Amino acid sequence: MEQRDSDATAPPGLGVGMVGYAFMGAAHSQGWRNVSRVFDLPLRPVLAAVAGRDAGAVRAAAERHGWAAAETDWRALIARDDVQLVDICTPGDSHAEIAIAALEAGKHVLCEKPLANSVAEAEAMASAAGAARARGQVAMVGFNYRRVPALSYARRLIAEGRLGTLRHVRVSYLQDWLVDPDFPLTWRLEREHAGSGALGDLGAHIVDLAQYLAGEPIVGVSAQTETFVRERPRLAAAAAGLSAPSGQAAADAPRGPVTVDDAVVFTGRLASGALAAFEASRMASGRKNQLRLEINGERGSLAFDLERLNELSFHDHREPAATSGFRRILVTEAEHPYLEAWWPPGHTLGYEHTFTHQARDLVVAIGAGTEPSPSFADGLRVQRVLAAVEESARKNAVYTPVEEASAEVR
User: Fold this and answer.
1) How far, in Å, are 46, 77, 204, 353 from residue 248 at the CA level?
2) CA atoms in the 13 A half-sphere facing the CB of 93
3) Is the pTM of this model over 0.85?
4) Best exposed site among 87, 143, 254, 359 by fewest CB in 10 Å?
5) Alpha-carbon dihedral of residues 211, 384, 398, 225, nearest 10 degrees?
């Protein structure tokens, strides 16, 4: 049997270096590991190295997730000749420093959301990305929910005018991992590391989705935030943040202040005048990772629930009243976004596939020399909305314009 010369036919390699290896690092690793096995790409991602401060833990992560080497200093990872793209999966307080250093070193960058902990940091990152773009580099923010096929398809339907002029956008993102008052004080509960709480962790996703799906920016907000548990047990050691490390904190351990929000609710206005409503909480008992949205327009409506992520609900308001209503679209056809590379119709995908799609879109942009989406400019736009939400909440829900909102969202 004739055997193909894989070295001769394989696309050029793209060395990936990842900083951080916990929850998001594992998800990103799976995306990088699988993407060239699923999609035809102009470049072949190679898992060159992963970096983390704990030498033993980062070596274990490298072995588990398929990285060829481990580093304990992110600067050493950026300096490696076999790394052309730096993937940042660290807490928000280090995003700006790592991303700017990587861009200045000539690397492409993928940075987890939210882009930064402040508007000033996000502006510096967007400026560095703009300068790097002129040198042929690209930078993208990891808003992975854009890569759910049903949500990508929703964007297509809205862009085609199937909903007509938009009237309402409402989105909620609810989790319950902080309900226990004795859950330990992880970095996600400290402003100096996380920037904000449910607002930046969950709210960043729903702000990005609202602007992405509507195709227009949020121009003003009115918000309230609350921290329901203001002190929590301190940890004996560092922890990842989404699950309590066994034995590291107890109810009688010394307690420290929670300096971020547990929950946020806010209304907003889009550039077109459409009204929006948002809720994000990590204190919603019984809700593990529930993201729901509905968009209403003059011609129809769309609804989505992440717990049924292969489905999209669509209502065409122009149909006769006797037969109209929401109908279920199973988003598994080859004509749907990303599905041409996966399974026969009816065979569903999951959360982890969004990271494969994210890797695919970034590699395609690098190969084509085009701006990826969402760009650092898009991430900055989200950061400005988050800042307006915090300002409004400090002023007891006073309507607050979003700074320099642009008329375009990619």
Assistant:
1) 36, 30, 29, 32
2) 10
3) yes
4) 254
5) 90
Residue 315 bridge partners (DSSP): 301
Identity of the amino acid at 178: L
Q: Read off the DSSP letter of residue 188.
A: G
Cα–Cα nearest to 87, from 65, 68, 117, 107: 107
Give which of 93, 309, 114, 303 is closest to 208, Cα–Cα: 114
| Per-residue pLDDT reduced to its tens digit, 346-384 | 999 999 999 999 999 999 999 999 999 999 999 999 999
Residue-wise burial string across 357-366, b where 16 or more C-beta atoms lie within 10 A, e elsewhere: bbbbbbbbbb
Cβ-based neighbours of 210, under 8 Å, separated by 6 or more:
169, 171, 218, 268, 270, 276, 278, 293
Residue 252: the pLDDT is 74
How many other CB atoms are there within 10 angstroms of residue 346's CB atom? 9
pLDDT tens, residue by residue, 31-53: 999 999 999 999 999 999 999 99
State the residue for tokens 């279920």.
328
Q: Are 374 and 209 in contact (CB under 8 A)?
A: no
How far is 139 from 99, CA to CA, in rounded Å? Answer: 9
* Tens digits of residue pLDDT in 202-231: 999 999 999 999 999 999 999 999 999 999
Under 8 Å between Cβ of 112 and 354? no
Q: Do 22 and 89 touch, CB atoms closer than 8 A?
A: yes
Q: What span, in angstroms and rounded, lies between the C-alpha atoms of 334 and 342? A: 8
Q: Locate the DSSP E strands across 249-321.
A: 255-257, 263-270, 275-281, 290-297, 300-305, 311-316
Could you tell me if residue 232 is left (phi over 0), alpha (psi between -120 and 50 degrees) or otherwise beta?
A: beta
The tens digit of pLDDT for each residue in 239-249 reads: 445 554 444 55
Residue with tokens 């400290």: 190
